[in-house]
Amino acid sequence: MDLILLLKAAIMGIVEGITEFLPISSTGHLILASELMNFWTKEKSDVFVIAIQMGAIAAVIYEYWSRLWGAATGMFTGEVKGRHLGFSLIMASIPIVLVGLTFGQAVKDLLFNDIAVAIGLIVGGFIIIWIEKHPPKVNAQEVENISYKEAMWIGLIQVLSLIPGTSRSGATIIGAMFLGISRKAATEFSFFLGIPVIIGAGLLDLYQSYDVFKTTEDWSVLATGIIVSFVSALILIRALVAYVAKRDFMIFAWYRIASGLLILLFAFTGWKLW
């Protein structure tokens, strides 16, 4: 067993857990971390980057189990809040499922690189700044208050997250805020919306690339990343909910812009940090 490889997988898990629900692009950070550490072969690393996100989303299911169970059963029992949330999540998930199944592999082949990540980070950063400086009137304080129309719009905005560097959480949170959803409700809806998208993408990628992981060590490396991402994401979720109750996302916007510019600088100059 290669202990160094397992250590790198654990570091990747920490990166995933910390970045998955922040508006700074988890996929972008994982791609960069993979290149920085020379983590695995590119073929295995690309699958790992997608599959590892299932650990982070498992943390959401664990943390919000009662509300999610209420949403799932509410669609059949007729309980109003649960039914509304359940159908809202289904409607918001449809666009990215359709686009992802159609163009997902093409996006991965063309845009899983540092330049695309940098551009996505910078553009997203400026959008966050604009929204924070021009906050729309809030018309939905809680997740259960989000209308079906708003849910569908959030789902369409989420499609942008297929582009590395854009950030799924960033797109859905900022998009929801633009539609008049409170910061807390937008953040929680983003948590919930990631469940079908991330689990579906992870399982599909593993199915399509089943021959990539051929040994027990390969699966051990993947399992390590998923477990570590679960633990670190659970800590991050609780911290983020407390954070958004009192603060805005400006710090993440400037972080995105600075990171993107730094990536472009190193990409175009050929300089190396390692």
List the helices and strands and how they pair.
Blueprint: H1 3-19, H2 26-37, H3 42-51, H4 53-63, H5 65-77, H6 80-111, H7 114-133, H8 148-158, H9 168-178, H10 183-208, H11 216-244, H12 250-269
Helix pairs in contact: 1-2, 1-11, 2-3, 2-7, 4-10, 4-11, 5-6, 6-8, 6-10, 7-9, 7-12, 8-9, 9-10
GO molecular function, one term: undecaprenyl-diphosphatase activity
Keywords: Antibiotic resistance, Cell inner membrane, Cell membrane, Cell shape, Cell wall biogenesis/degradation, Hydrolase, Membrane, Peptidoglycan synthesis, Transmembrane, Transmembrane helix
Organism: Acinetobacter bouvetii DSM 14964 = CIP 107468
Figure out the total of helices.
12
The share of residues in extended strands comes to under 5%
Summed over residues and divided by their number, the pLDDT gives a mean of: 90
Question: What's the structural domain tally?
Answer: 1
Q: So what's the overall shape? A: globular
Low-confidence stretches: none
Catalytic activity: di-trans,octa-cis-undecaprenyl diphosphate + H2O = di-trans,octa-cis-undecaprenyl phosphate + phosphate + H(+)
Transmembrane segments: 47-65, 85-103, 110-131, 151-177, 189-207, 219-241, 253-271
Membrane topology: Multi-pass membrane protein
Organism: Acinetobacter bouvetii DSM 14964 = CIP 107468
